[in-house]
Amino acid sequence: MKKTILTLLMMMTMLMIVSCGSQDWEEDVSAESVETFSISLTPHMNDITVAWEEDNKISTYEIYRVDVTQDVLNPEKDMTYELSSYEKIAEVSGGEGSYTDENVKADHYYAYLVKAYQQVEEEKKLVYASNEDDGQYTCQCCGLSAPDLLNGGSGEFSTNSKDCLYLYYQCYYGVDPTDVILYRKAEGEEEYQKIDFETVEEICEGSGEIKDTSVEPGVIYYYKIKAVRQEDGQEYYSKKSDEVRIPAVNFKGEYTVSKQTISGYSDKVIVKLKSDRYNGELKIGQGDSALDDEDNAVEVTAFSCDNESWKTLKDQEVVISPGDTVYIQVEGEDIASADEIYLDSDKGAVRLEYDGPGVGYSILNIDFEGGIAQVYQNFD
Fold it and tell me: Distance between CA atoms of 339 and 331, rounded to whole angstroms?
């Protein structure tokens, strides 16, 4: 019985020690007298240097670290971490302005915190702490980080087309690359292949822009990229980036158009749309808002492939593939006499989705007078 009680007491004592140890950091830095100070992180191929501004009244610096790799690679990351998760990894004397952490793994991301103490008689007094509000952290990657790869041909001055696709990459963490390797596969292919590319903007502070001029019009492509670093006669490689999908199609989808009025109706017309063979796929459906919710809103209510058999757009959509001809019934105030209309998802009465090489929501401009239409993705 006595042995059992003694064992329980020992276990409780150990639990108290563990619990208190995990709260030391939070209790220390929550004191009102503790000021915050900044630290900087510099990555190298085999280590990470933590640096701060020296203060001659500081006798000891304690360095804490936590591996935040899973958090950084999570697409919904919030860049916060519990202070109790940090572990003390080193202690350096006052007068030092940095610490190099060599016990790190390549491709791993680490966040650091530093506590600065002043020796007051026989006790250490915490003077500064580098923690930030709400557990927010900054981190660094040892070695090369996998680049972020983006569609580089979107926006107002888009350069993407059916003949050339642009890609932008950025290495937010790790050492700056000296080169990159581009991989590509076409829709339907299983394996990525290394391909040549042309440089648009040389690598600067970890970012650059390249273009692929070997695309075939009308084909959908998928890309990945890998960062390369040459240092001390060795060549290092990062992991591959996430996949980016870009169709090699007309940036502005092109259509020939004709308008057919409906006898007795000024607010209804039938529009014939013939898609260019190098367009992306266009989907048209009904939006969430009623027609009278927006000024000058236009609504598509039905579609037909032959102008004879019609289907309502309620709870479905019409898909206009490259080269297709489709008829749509469009409604709007005085639309029968209009020279030009816009179908815009932003208006609410129409839902558009153009599978083009840009980024953003889609706008379809129909010019009845000129007999043409264009659809594009509005980056803004």
Answer: 14
Contacts of 145 (CB under 8 A, 6+ apart): 107, 109, 171, 172, 173, 174, 227, 238
Burial of 340 (0-12, 13-18, 19+ CB in 10 A): exposed
d(CA 227, CA 205): 13
pLDDT tens per residue, the chain (380 residues)? Answer: 434 433 433 444 333 333 333 445 555 554 456 788 999 999 999 999 999 998 989 999 999 999 999 988 887 777 788 888 899 999 999 989 999 999 999 989 999 999 999 988 888 899 999 976 667 888 999 999 999 999 988 755 568 999 999 999 999 999 999 999 999 999 999 999 999 999 999 999 999 999 999 999 999 999 999 999 998 889 999 999 999 999 999 999 999 999 999 999 999 999 999 999 999 999 999 887 666 555 567 899 999 999 999 999 988 999 999 999 999 999 988 999 999 999 987 777 889 999 999 888 899 999 999 999 999 888 76
Distances (CA, A) of 89 to 82, 100, 113: 17, 11, 10
Backbone angles phi, psi at 311, to 5 degrees: -130, 140
Q: Name, in order, each residue with C-beta under 8 angstroms of 315's C-beta and a sequence gap of 6 or more.
A: none
Number of H helices, E strands in the chain: 2, 29
Give the Cα separation of 200 and 206 in Å (integer): 14
**Rounded Cα distance, 39 and 154, in Å:** 36
* Residues 6 or more apart in contact with residue 284 via CB below 8 angstroms: 300, 303, 313, 317, 318, 320, 328, 343, 350, 351, 352, 364
Q: Are 98 and 45 in contact (CB under 8 A)?
A: no
Measured CA to CA in angstroms, residue 275 lies from 51, 184, 258, 326, 328 at distances of 59, 27, 12, 8, 13
Strands 179-186 and 220-231: antiparallel
CA-to-CA distance for 59 and 39, rounded, in angstroms?
17
DSSP 282-322: EEEEE-SS-GGGSTT--EEEEEESSSSSEEE-TT-EEEE-T
